[in-house]
Design a protein that fits this description.
6 helices, single chain, alpha/beta, about 220 residues, two-stranded antiparallel sheet
C-alpha cells in the first residue's frame, strides 16, 4: 500500500512538472520545483493531493498556493541567486523553500504564530539553512533587514503598499496580487531611480493581506 501511494505521488509529480514546464520559461524555477517535496508542506490528510495543481488547506483558514501560481510568482522576481528576498506570508513554508533554492537568503514573515512555528520546523528538518521565519504584527514586512533585492507577497492587497516599496532596494522587484478581496492581478513592480515600474502578469486569487497598508482584519497569511 505504501509503494502504491508513493507511485501515485511520483506519477502526479511528473505530470505537474510537465504542466509547469509549458508555462514557466525560467528553467531554474522549474528545476527547483522538481527538487521540492510539496508533500512535506501539507497536512497528512491531503498529502495524496500534494501534486495536484490546486491550492490545499493547511489550517487556520489558510492554503498552500497552487504550484503554478507559486512558480509564476517566483519567476516574476527575476532572481539571479545573489538576492536577499523578503516573503510576506510564510504559510506552509513551500514558497519559502523554493525561494531558498534560487536566492542567497530568505526572510519570511507570517502573521499566524502557529503557522510560522510549523513552517520553521519543517524548513529546518529539511535542511533549508538560508531562511529565517518571523512572526509578524500589524506592520508589513521586516524593515530590520531591509533593503531587499526582491519581495514576494503571498496574499492580496487593495494596492501596492508603500511600506513594502520602502523596504525594496534600487533595482529590486516586488511580486504581489493587487485588486479586490475576490479577484486580483498579479503584478511585478521594479524600483528604479525614475520611480516604480508596474508590469501586469495576469489574473489570480489569493487570501487577503491584512494589516496596515492592506485590508483591515485580525488574521491572515
Amino acid at each position: 500500500m505504501v509503494n502504491v501511494a508513493a507511485d501515485r505521488l511520483s506519477q502526479a509529480r511528473r505530470a505537474l512538472l510537465a504542466d509547469i514546464s509549458v508555462e514557466i520559461k525560467d528553467t531554474r524555477v522549474v528545476e527547483a520545483i522538481a527538487r521540492l517535496p510539496r508533500e512535506e508542506f501539507v497536512p497528512e490528510e491531503v498529502r495524496q493531493s500534494a501534486y495536484e495543481n490546486m491550492p490545499l488547506p493547511i489550517g487556520y483558514g489558510q492554503t498552500i498556493s497552487q504550484p503554478l501560481i507559486v512558480a509564476m510568482m517566483t519567476e516574476a522576481l527575476l532572481l539571479n541567486g545573489s538576492e536577499k528576498v523578503l516573503e510576506i506570508g510564510t504559510g506552509s513554508g513551500y514558497q519559502t523553500a523554493l525561494l531558498s533554492k534560487l536566492a542567497n537568503h530568505v526572510v519570511s514573515v507570517e502573521r499566524i504564530p502557529a503557522l510560522a512555528e510549523r513552517a520553521a520546523a519543517v524548513l529546518s528538518r529539511l535542511g533549508y539553512s538560508n531562511v529565517e521565519v518571523h512572526s509578524g504584527g500589524d506592520g508589513l514586512g521586516w524593515p530590520q533587514a531591509a533593503p531587499y533585492g526582491a519581495i514576494i507577497v503571498t496574499a492580496a492587497a487593495p494596492e501596492v503598499p508603500r511600506e513594502l516599496l520602502d523596504q525594496l532596494g534600487s533595482g529590486g522587484r516586488l511580486a504581489i496580487p493587487v485588486g479586490s478581496r475576490d479577484l486580483q492581478e498579479l503584478v511585478r513592480i521594479v524600483k528604479t531611480p525614475e520611480g516604480a515600474l508596474r508590469h501586469n502578469l495576469g489574473p489570480c486569487r489569493f487570501v487577503p493581506l491584512l494589516g496596515r497598508s492592506a485590508w483591515p482584519g485580525h488574521s491572515g497569511d
